[in-house]
Design goal:
- By secondary structure, the chain is mainly alpha-helical.
- It folds into two domains: 1-58, Orthogonal Bundle (Arc Repressor Mutant, subunit A); 67-204, Tetracycline Repressor, domain 2, CATH 1.10.357.10.
- Helices cover 76% and strands 0% of the residues.
- Helix 4 (60-79) packs across helix 6 and helix 5 (89-104) packs across helix 9 (186-200).
Length: 204
């Protein structure tokens, strides 16, 4: 029994250290930008040695992949509470966009977006990262569950999903560029909700 308790304690310590390192990466990129988020700066903020980082993640690329995977896991968790087809299309769209914006509008999304840009630049043509493939499948799964009754072809549904992600990403980027701070872009989100509601209901 004591051994099991010790194992749980070790597991908790491991999880805490990993979380602290990933939080340091997000904080560092948000404060000084991706280019200046060096290994030494990350370890300083996390309060660990580089050896500890290597033990948990292997290298800097391993940390970045872990941060992205963690970010999109939390994103999927936010969307899990979506209402089903018993609710009206407008209610489902409203809940979907509000949940999605809680991710795209979060402080850590700015950091993960910078990581995404760097990963994309380094990616070989035709090479789709595992986390990105998983994220796309998870997004599509939740989308289909929320809007299962929409009379759209697969092509139309995928286009509408890509459009939604593009708009949310654009709003998040413009808020940073325009110095919008923490203001919630309700007018822009309402326009997106209206467009989605119309498309899902087959309205012109």
């Amino acid at each position: 029994m004591a051994t099991q308790s010790a194992r749980r304690t070790q597991a908790e310590r491991t999880a805490e250290t990993r979380a602290r390192i990933m939080d340091a990466v997000v904080e560092c990129i948000a404060d000084v930008g991706f280019g200046r988020a060096t290994a030494s700066e990350i370890t300083r903020r996390a309060g660990v040695t580089w050896g500890a980082v290597q033990h948990h993640f292997g290298d800097k690329d391993g940390i970045l992949r872990a941060v992205l995977e963690d970010s999109f896991e939390r994103f999927a968790e936010r969307l899990e509470g979506m209402p089903g087809t018993g609710a009206s299309v407008n209610e489902r769209v409203d809940a979907f966009i509000n949940c999605a914006w809680s991710h795209f509008g979060s402080a850590d999304y700015q950091s993960t977006f910078e990581i995404l840009l760097q990963v994309e630049r380094a990616r070989a043509p035709g090479d789709l990262p595992t986390w990105q493939s998983g994220m796309s499948k998870e997004w599509s799964r939740i989308w289909r569950a929320a809007f299962a009754d929409a009379r759209l072809s697969r092509r139309e549904s995928l286009a509408l999903q890509r459009y939604t992600v593009s708009v949310l990403t654009g709003i998040a980027s413009m808020r940073v560029i325009g110095g919008g701070g923490q203001r919630r872009p309700d007018a822009e989100l309402d326009l997106l909700k209206d467009a989605l509601s119309r498309s899902l209901q087959g309205q012109a």
